[in-house]
Amino acid sequence: MKRITVFCASSFGTEKIYEEQAIALGKTLAEQNIELVYGGANVGLMGAVADGALNAGGKVIGVLPNFLRSKEIAHQGLTELILVESMHERKTKMNDLCDGVIALPGGFGTLEELFEMLTWAQLGLHKKPIAILNVDGYYDSLIELLKTMTTKGLLKETNREMLLISDNIDDLLLKMRNYTPPTVGKWIEKDKV
């Protein structure tokens, strides 16, 4: 893996460990010569993961919609800042640039980005590893919901297993390196119905 996209909050949240793990993730990526691709902001966990990588000598590419740059949240110290016109163009560009995805704690935007990447993988549009760094159990309820979706027949087990989960950065990166995408597609052929 040469580049990993990280989706996360533009705020810090209530727990100091979120910021600490964002910094640690950025630092670890830099130490392993993995470039960071992220949303381009200097605020919250987004700024923390970028600073963690930059302070460890890593390369960081930010992808930021023009309308957010005008709110003066663009990180000024990045290796590269790519400006795009829309949120959708941002996600597409971040996907194009990366070899895998990690979600840190976040809100609606982080979940939307994570689930779009999972949906694209489920549809066979990419075969990249997609992961959650489950900091301090932040995503425990979401993980339970995914299990419910599977037991209720609305999500295939093989598709649920596309989402790699760990609370440890090194373990998560190892899972991503060893990831094998599912061979079963989402769609059922007519003759198998």
Automatic annotation (TrEMBL):
Reactions catalysed according to its record: AMP + H2O = D-ribose 5-phosphate + adenine
Keywords: Cytokinin biosynthesis, Hydrolase
Top-tier EC class: hydrolase
Annotated InterPro entries: LOG, LOG_fam
Keyword Protein biosynthesis assigned: no
EC number: 3.2.2.n1
Keyword DNA repair: no
Transmembrane segments: none
PANTHER family in alphabetical order: LOG FAMILY PROTEIN YJL055W
Family note: Belongs to the LOG family.
Descriptive protein name: Cytokinin riboside 5'-monophosphate phosphoribohydrolase
Organism: Flavobacterium quisquiliarum
